[in-house]
Amino acid sequence: MKADEKFTYETWPAAPEKQTLDGKNKFLGFWLFLGGETVLFATLFATYLALKDRVPNSDHYLAKDLFEIPLVFVMTMLLLTSSLTSVYAMYHMKNFNFKKMQLWLGITVLLGLAFLGFEVYEFNHYVHEYHHTFTSSAFGTAFYTLVGFHGAHVAFGLAWIITLMVRNAKRGLDLYTAPKFYVASLYWHFIDVVWVFIFTVVYLMGMVG
Amino acid sequence: MSTYAQKKGVGAVLWDYLTTVDHKKIAILYLIAGGFFFLVGGLEAMFIRIQLAVPGNDFVSAGVYNEILTMHGTTMIFLAAMPLIFAFMNAVMPLQIGARDVAFPFLNSLGFWLFFFGGVFLNLSWFLGGAPDAGWTSYASLSLASEGHGIDFYVLGLQISGAGTLIGGINFLVTIINMRAPGMTYMRMPLFTWTTFVTSALILFAFPPLTVALFLMLFDRLFGGNFFNPDMGGNTIIWEHLFWIFGHPEVYILVLPAFGIFSEIFAIFSRKRLFGYSSMVFATVLIGFLGFMVWAHHMFTTGLGPIANAIFSVATMAIAVPTGIKIFNWLFTMWGGSIKFTTPMLYAIAFIPTFTMGGVTGVMLASAAQDYQFHDSYFVVAHFHYVIVGGVVFALLGGLHLYWPKMFGTMLNEALGKITFWLFLIGFHLTFFIQHFLGLMGMPRRIFTFNSGQGFDMANMVSTVGAFFMAVATIVLLINIVMTIAKNEKVGGDPWGDGRTLEWALPSPPPFYNFKQLPLVRGLDAFWIEKMEGNKEMTPAEPIGDIHMPNNSFVPFVISLGLFIAAFGAMYHNEHSWGIPVLIIGMLVVFGSMFFRSVKDDHGYHIHKEELMDDDKGGKA
């Protein structure tokens, strides 16, 4: 089966992302990569928990003074919704509806961008209002490293999805492009799952002291 | 007509290797680069032994000694042992499972170039203000106090080469899961493939903690972070945990493939099926699993408390059980076999008592109470050289002789090979056996000199003499390699005459597409089964058809070069204004080439059926 074969709605297979050997390899390889990423974030979480509220003296703000639920709640909702919209995109991918897939991916990107905007605002707020910076304390370093790593993943994911959308805008779906979209959406889900943990471990547990 | 048979100029060959995505050529690249770093690390070892030959020596200064010691360990683990193991994995594993290539040929090439540029970056420290000097473990309190850029070279160099290793691990996992030939079930995979599989899984889960640890160190040293600075609320023990959560599985990442190579050697040269195949597989997986449960046995004296120490102590001792299973299986494989004492077999036989001694001292060290006595003494140095040289280096040397014909189509000289073996074996035990007693007598490790009159003089001199034996052995090996290349006497597909697994069913070296027709695997030791039924080659599982191949690519080299440039920018940004721009340029090169790779289609090409048939008529080997 050739990767660039043309398809119609009727001939489009049920699992187009795993139809070719290349697709199968990409699918499995990416899942394994996400396993490694899980360990990476687990390590960052452990470091953060070890250094939470560790500051040089009592002039520094602690987690319970810094975080505000409304802002973080909005961010969480934005990212969770973007995960849902990427599911819609994959639904249309599986149904060979390229235009709708692009539309939902576009919405996913907008939600992701909004999330990043809020995160920039949030960091800026902590730095200027609370003097909670990367270098001010071990707590600060650990906080910005963990949340910043996640933010960098979001930014990379956005660049990736936008590149895919633009590159394949004219070409549409075939067995060569389907695994690319599918794997990018897996990445996006992973980022979302990590945020769920950040929301719980950093923000919710931070609020209660 | 086929292009690969044409004569090529030096430039064309070089370009071919810079852009290759063929696992067999990447294996040769790993072998050359890993071999080079092995010599560098060996030279550093010689400097260590010369400095310690006599008390009060001033061959090198205390500061330079620290640098040599650090670089010896770091180079040997990350830049010699790992890539040499990757060389054999790349050369052999795809052939053993009957695959035409690995799952991700492009990433395979990227993995190599990342490792290579990381290694070069690390070693440039010698010429740019001094090498790292905090030991290969680079504990945070030492590292943060280290002046100059030595530690930064360590952090950035290992970060780049570690990324390459992780990519390699994922690649091998997917290859083994998805690309086995028809009939090659999991429980028919050769042991070397199994150990590659488990090792790759260990790499996947052990390298991310190292990545994070190196990032934390990078942030602390170069970007004002406070992870390990107690004055700012930091905690230096975090480094120890993260380093050893990586570092202990790393030991098994090194030694499991060594076990795999020995399992192949024992079966081939005892001319007998490997004894207890399924228990070998089980023991391999169990060692891989337990390898993650024992990291704190490196930290018994850190002060984690008696409960933590007891748990990690027991878990560590448990690893002796699956390892013992393996040792007995190898012995039973030889039992009743028709043994041929070839060079690889000599290494395998010598490995058993040597490694067992390292294992016994390992169990001694696993007992936390005893460890308080042994900690940071030469006893520990003796222990880990017995497992890493007696296990890993013996396997690499044995594997080099075993697989040389498969990689290059010629045989290393057996007489010289045996001379190398005996010199190396004697030199090794002379160097390290006596270090057990030095340790028990109280000589601490990582000291640049010692005073006479403590009873250390004689033993240190003996140890140094042993090191020279190993150096001579290495020189004989190099002579052997040069002579073999100069003579260039080609051998057939199964030069040892007793090959059991699929790689020996192919010509040496195999054609670039490996298998013209994928083989049908009918059981464990697939080629042996065919031989026993009087067949000269494997039964094909498919008719001859077009073969799809990937195109060469220069992008992996450029991506790695970009990271190399970016690392310089990151390192010098505090004292030079060009630092940040260079960092940005380097990262732009990285992301730019990733972007290029992403948007430019590369579907590869097909070798047509007719060309494959033509090759047959040409009477090619």
TrEMBL record, chain A:
Keywords: Cell membrane, Membrane, Transmembrane, Transmembrane helix. The chain crosses the membrane at residues 28-51, 71-91, 103-121, 141-166, 186-206. It is a multi-pass membrane protein. It is found in: Cell membrane. It comes from the Bacteria. Residues 28-207 form the Heme-copper oxidase subunit III family profile domain. Belongs to the cytochrome c oxidase subunit 3 family. This is Cytochrome (Ubi)quinol oxidase subunit III. The lineage of its organism: Bacteria, Bacillati, Bacillota, Bacilli, Bacillales.
Automatic annotation (TrEMBL), chain B:
Its EC number is 7.1.1.9. SUPFAM superfamilies: Cytochrome c oxidase subunit I-like. The keyword Nucleotide-binding does not apply. Pfam families: COX1. Residues 9-522 form the Cytochrome oxidase subunit I profile domain. It catalyses: 4 Fe(II)-[cytochrome c] + O2 + 8 H(+)(in) = 4 Fe(III)-[cytochrome c] + 2 H2O + 4 H(+)(out). Pathway: Energy metabolism; oxidative phosphorylation. Keywords: Cell membrane, Copper, Electron transport, Heme, Iron, Membrane, Metal-binding, Respiratory chain, Translocase, Transmembrane, Transmembrane helix, Transport. It is found in: Cell membrane; Membrane. The chain crosses the membrane at residues 27-48, 68-89, 110-131, 151-179, 191-218, 238-262, 274-295, 307-332, 344-366, 378-404, 416-438, 458-482, 554-572, 578-596. It is a multi-pass membrane protein. The keyword Iron applies. Belongs to the heme-copper respiratory oxidase family. Cytochrome c oxidase is the component of the respiratory chain that catalyzes the reduction of oxygen to water. Subunits 1-3 form the functional core of the enzyme complex. CO I is the catalytic subunit of the enzyme. Electrons originating in cytochrome c are transferred via the copper A center of subunit 2 and heme A of subunit 1 to the bimetallic center formed by heme A3 and copper B. PANTHER family: CYTOCHROME C OXIDASE SUBUNIT 1 (PTHR10422:SF44). This is Cytochrome c oxidase subunit 1. It comes from Cytobacillus stercorigallinarum. The gene is ctaD.
